[in-house]
Amino acid sequence: MNNNLILVTGAAGYVGSHCLVELLNNGYDVVVIDNCSNSIQLNGKNMPESLIRVQSITGRKLVNFYQEDINNVTKLEEIFTKHRFVAVMHFAALKAVGESCKIPLDYYHNNVSGTITLLEVMRKYGVKKFIFSSSATVYGHPDYLPIDENHRTGNGCTNPYGRTKYFIEEILKDLCASEKGWCVASLRYFNPVGAHESGEIGEDPQGIPNNLMPYISQVAVRRQPFLKVFGNDFKTADGTGVRDYIHIMDLAAGHSITLENILKKDWSGWNVYNFGAGTGYSVLDV
């Protein structure tokens, strides 16, 4: 049995691919499942371009890549039968806030139902160490700032995307309370930005970007004509919204450190951690 084999879902996406670099660089063997709904696969290539570049950056190969949907229980069980995982790191999710308001059922099916299916298969095959890449949107409207891990969640989540993350966290809490042996870490963060220092991978969304940094980047290279700034009367120094931005490689390091702790320390049950830079920047600052 490989005591170092990790299953990573959604690793072809922005956050997942950068975390994959950290895992491979830290000696983990990795199997990836991704339905490639938010990745580019060039003609003749057997996997998304992001994963090919991750392998080039790290000089290491994935154990396997499966282009599958986590809602496909038959395929999931085939993968769990073939491999003996020690932990699962879960990134697979639709994540555009605006889009989630337009097609909420797609978000609930993909994010919530897909996670339930994954957890059911994990339980069947005795894999109970789980890292959930969550979101600080689960806090909803803040009661106080800065928000810490003791802040209540679900307090007016403003969109279906945020609610899917909140619902999944509640499911994970109930699972940990009902069954011994589970060790779950939920990692909450807001705005990852930047790219790996090689420049080979980064945030390059298809269509019009939903996040500020890639939008600014596309305006800079003239893929977009101009940047729209929404809101000028927030209670901030310049009237625009302030956000906590965390560099993507810091976020990736946090996921890898969490995995190390789950595997090597006496963690159990439900655990939650906020990841952030601790310094806010307004839209005009950025």
Quick synopsis:
Residues 6-262 form the NAD-dependent epimerase/dehydratase domain. The protein has eight helices and ten strands.
By DSSP (H or I, 4+ residues per run), the number of helices equals 8
Mean of all residue-level pLDDT scores: 94
Helix content: 25-40%
Reading the helices and strands in chain order gives EHEHEHEHHEHEEHEHEE
Quaternary: single chain
CATH architecture: 3-Layer(aba) Sandwich
CATH class: Alpha Beta
Q: Give, in spatial order, the strands making up the sheet with the most strands.
A: 3-2-1-4-5-6-9
Q: Which spans of ≥5 residues are poorly predicted at pLDDT below 50? A: none
Question: What does this protein structure show overall?
Answer:
It is a single chain. The chain is α/β, with parallel strands linked by helices and about 290 residues long. The protein has one domain (about 5-195, about 245-280): NAD(P)-binding Rossmann-like Domain (Rossmann fold, 3-Layer(aba) Sandwich). About 35% of the residues lie in helices and about 15% in strands. The chain has helices spanning about 15-25, 50-60, 75-80, 95-100, 105-125, 160-180, 210-220, 250-265; strands at about 5-10, 30-35, 65, 85-90, 130-135, 185-190, 190-195, 240-245, 270-275, 280. Helix 1 (about 15-25) links the parallel strand 1 and strand 2 (about 30-35). The longest helix is centred in the middle third of the chain and has 21 residues, at about 105-125. It catalyses: UDP-alpha-D-glucose = UDP-alpha-D-galactose; UDP-N-acetyl-alpha-D-glucosamine = UDP-N-acetyl-alpha-D-galactosamine. Its EC number is 5.1.3.2.
